[in-house]
Amino acid sequence: MEFGIFDLLKLIGALCFFIYGMKVMSEGIQKLAGNSMRKILSTITTNRIAGVFTGFTTTALIQSSSATTVMLVSFVNAGLLSLTQSIGVIMGANIGTTITAWLITLLGFKVKMSVIALPLIGVGFPMMFSSKGKMKALAEFIVGFALLFLGLDELKHAVPDIKHNPEVLEFLKHWTTLGFLSTVLFVLIGTILTVVVQSSSAAMALTLVLCANGTIPFEAAAAMVLGENIGTTITANLAAMIGNVHAKRTARAHFIFNIFGVIWMLVAFEGFMYVINEYMISTGAGSPFLEPDSVPTALSIFHTTFNILNVVFLIWFVNFIAKVVTRMVPSKGDADEEFRLEYISTGLLGTPELSIMEAKKEVAKFGNITNKMSDKVRLLLSETDRKKRVKLHASIKKYEEITDRIEIEITNYLGKVSQSELTSEASIKIRGMLSIANDLERIGDIYYQMSKGIERKNNEKIWFSPEQRERLEKLMNRIDESFVIMSTNLNAEYGSIKMDDAIAQEIEINRYRNEIRIEHLESMQKEDYNINSGMIYSDLFSSLEKVGDHVINVSEAVAGKI
Question: How many Cβ atoms from other residues are within 10 Å of residue 190's Cβ?
Fold first, then answer.
C-alpha cells in the first residue's frame, strides 16, 4: 500500500487535531489559573533556584512554555523582574515542558484515553454554556484534554506503519546509518518540525508516535527531541523580532540556553544512549532499541534528564548569559523622537487578561509622553535662541503626531481584546483605558496649539512681562505636580487608587487659574500690556487649565469613575 496525498492530509489533519486540543486545554488552564500564575511570577526573589522552580511549576500547570514566556516578558517589561531572574524562570520552563511528554506517554500510550475522551466531552461541553467564567474555563480544559488524546489516537493511526509499508519511509533508513552526522541531521529535522507545527508538544507527540511505530530508530527520535528544544526557541525569537528590547533579550537567552544544552548533549550522546538503554533493561521494560513498547518511556526519560542536567550545568552561568544577550541586543536608548509601541506591538497575547496588562503599560507610557510634551512647551516658552526654538517646535509637532497614532493603535488593540469573552472587571478596565487614551491625545493637541501660540508670539516679537512669565511658570509647576500624580495612578492597579491627591491638585490648579484670570483682566483694563500679548497670555493659561482637566479625567478613569 502506497502512502498517497490523501494519507498525508490525514496525517496533517491528525496533527492539527492534536495541536487544537492542546491549545484549548492550555487556554482553559490559563483562564483558571492565570491570575495565580502571574502572582507567583511577580513575587520571584533574586534566588535563581526559586526562579527555576517557579518556571517549572507555572509551565507544568498551564501546559504551555510559550504562555510562561509571554508572562515572563510582561513582568520584565514592567520592571517586576530583572533579565537575570527571567533566565532562571526560562530554565524551569524547559523542565516544565517535559510534563507534557510524560502526560502523552503515560496516558496516550499506556492508557486508552481515547475510550473515555468522548464521555469527557459529554461532561465538559454543556458546561461551556455556563454564565460563570470559571465554569466555562474548566469546560475548555476538559474538552481540550479529551480532544488532545483523540488527536493523539488519530495521529497514531495516521502515521504509516513501517512494518507493513516499509517502502513509505525507506529514505529515512539511509539517514540513520551515517553515524554522528545522522544525529546532527535528525536534530535539524526536529528543529524544522517544531518551527513548522509551532508547538514543541505536538512535535514531541509526533516523534513518540514515529518511534513507537518503528518508523525511526530510538537514537534518531532522541536527536529529534534535541532539535525540538532548539525549534521552540526559534519560534520565540521569530515572535520577538517585532517586540521590544526586553522581549528580544528574553528570547535570545532562551535560545542560548537551549543551544548550549544541545551542543554538550551531542558530545555525550552515545554514552547517554547507552545509560538509558541499560536503565530500561534493568527495570524490565526492555531495550528501546529493540522493544517498541519501551520507546515512549525511554524518550520521556531522555527528554526530562536532558533538561534537568542542562539546568544543573548552566544555572551557574545565569549572569554570564544575561551579559551576552544584553550585548547581542543593545538598548537603542531614548526612542521618543520616533513612533514606537513598546508593549502591544507583538499583537494579542494568549488571554484577554495578559493583553489588558500589556495595554495598561502602553497607556502608562503614553502618559509619560504627554508629560515630556509639557517639559518641551516650558522650554519653548523660555528659550531665546531661534534655532533651538525651531527645533523644539518641530519636536512638539512630532510628539503630537505620535500621540494621535498611539491613541489609534491602543483603541484598535483594545477593540480586538473586547471581542474576547471578558469578565466585568476586564470590561471596566478596557472602558477606562479607552477614555484615558482619548484624554492623553487631547493633552497632546493642547500642547501643540500652545506651541503654535508661543511661536506666533516670538515671530511677531510680542513679549510677556516678568509678572506674566512668573504666573505661567507657577501654573506649569502645578500642572507638573498633577502629572506626577497621574503617572503614579497609571502604574497602579485600576480601581484601587484614591483620588484625594488628584482632586486637591485639580482644585489648586483651578484656584490659581482663576486668580491669574482676575489679575489679567485688571491688567488689561489698566493697559499694562498690549492686547496681542494679553490674548496669547490668556490662551496659554486657559490651555494649561484644560490640560489639568484632562489629567484629572485620567485619574478618574483609573479609579473607575467614568
Answer: 28
| Alpha-helix runs per DSSP H in 268-351 | 269-282, 295-314, 318-328
Nearest-angstrom CA–CA distance, 65 and 73: 12
Q: Distance of CA 521 to CAs 476, 509, 538, Å?
A: 20, 18, 9
Which pLDDT score, from 0 to 100, does residue 461 have? 81
Are 407 and 370 contacting, i.e. CB atoms less than 8 angstroms apart? no
| Cα end-to-end span (Å), the chain | 69
And the C-alpha cell for 334?
531614548
Model-wide pTM > 0.70: no
* Alpha helix segments (H runs only) across 47-112: 48-62, 65-78, 83-96, 98-103
- Which pLDDT score, from 0 to 100, does residue 442 have? 95
> What is the Cα–Cα distance from 476 to 297, expressed in whole angstroms?
70
Q: Name the helix (H) or strand (E) containing 9.
A: helix 5-42
Contacts with 248 (C-beta within 8 Å, 6 or more apart), sequence order? 237, 240, 241, 329
In the block, cell 516578558 appears at 73
Q: How far does Cα 220 stand from its chain's mean position?
A: 34
- Per-residue pLDDT at 164: 47
Is the distance from CB of 429 to CB of 557 less than 8 angstroms?
no
What is the C-alpha to C-alpha distance for residues 562 and 552, in angstroms, rounded to an integer? 12
276 touches 288 (CB < 8 A):
yes
Contact 190, 224 (CB under 8 A): yes
Sequential DSSP letters for 374-438: HHHHHHHHH---HHHHHHHHHHHHHHHHHHHHHHHHHHHHHHHHHTS---HHHHHHHHHHHHHHH
For 238-271, letters b (16+ CB in 10 Å) and e give ebbeebbbbbbbbbbbbbbbbeebbeebbeebee
Domain residue spans of the chain: 5-328, 352-558
Closest CA to 453 of 541, 548, 388, 518: 541
Amino acid at residue number 99: I
CATH of 352-558 given 1.20.58.220, 1.20.1080.10, 1.10.10.10, 3.40.50.2000: 1.20.58.220
Q: Which amino acid is at 505?
A: Q
Q: What integer pLDDT is reported at residue 552 of this predicted model?
A: 93
Local mean pLDDT, 10-residue blocks, the chain (562 residues): 68 75 69 59 61 77 62 58 76 80 67 69 83 78 77 66 46 60 85 73 76 78 87 69 68 87 89 88 83 82 89 87 85 50 60 78 88 89 85 88 88 84 81 93 93 85 82 91 92 85 91 87 70 80 91 90 74
Residue 194 neighbours by CB under 8 Å, 6+ apart: 200, 203, 227, 228, 230, 231, 232, 234, 235
